[in-house]
């Protein structure tokens, strides 16, 4: 995760999934996914960050968090200057999960079961850059099997990665 104070990447006990990122349109297959997700979210392909693939094993989870950026450090502030705020998330489920693994929204009392081929899409930033605290969400504990998902974050304008990324 990104440390909210320093802006540096670090391991965190509250997110125990494994994950990796692809660059935008990194391969022909990823480019096809980026194009499809762009259609689903009704946003330009180049406003999307690269796909993140996540794997949750039994006993792993993600505690409640926001996907929007909080400008509490130089790295987040610079990211917002380059590409604007994150405005939406799409979480697509790559497999059925035997037990647990729901995406929960505690502020609104919603829980989405991970089922292969389904996705949950949510927006959390309006056209004035104001973010919505009701977008707080979590990945519930996987109790049986594995959970595989792909996440797509979309920005206010063209995504420009940090130098060296």
Descriptive overview:
It is a single chain. The strands form 3 sheets. Strands 1-2-11-4-8 form a 5-stranded antiparallel β-sheet, with helices on one face. Strands 3-9-6-7 form a 4-stranded antiparallel β-sheet, with no helix packed on it. Helices cover 15% and strands 30% of the residues. It contains 2 helices and 11 strands. The two termini are 15 Å apart. The chain is α+β, with helices and mostly antiparallel strands.
Task: Please supply descriptive tags for the structure shown above.
single chain, globular, four-stranded antiparallel sheet, 30% strand, five-stranded antiparallel sheet, alpha+beta, 2 helices, 165 residues
**What is the strand arrangement across the widest sheet?**
1-2-11-4-8
Judged by helices, strands and strand pairing, the structural class is alpha+beta
For the record, give the distance between the C-alpha atoms at the N and C termini, rounded to a whole number.
15 Å
Number of strands: 11
Query: What is the number of helical segments per DSSP (H or I, 4+ residues)?
Result: 2
- Gyration radius, in Å: 15 Å
Percent range of helical residues: 10-25%
Mean pLDDT: 92
Beta-strand content: 25-35%
Low-pLDDT runs of 5+ residues are none
Q: Globular, elongated, flat, extended or rod-shaped: what is the shape?
A: globular
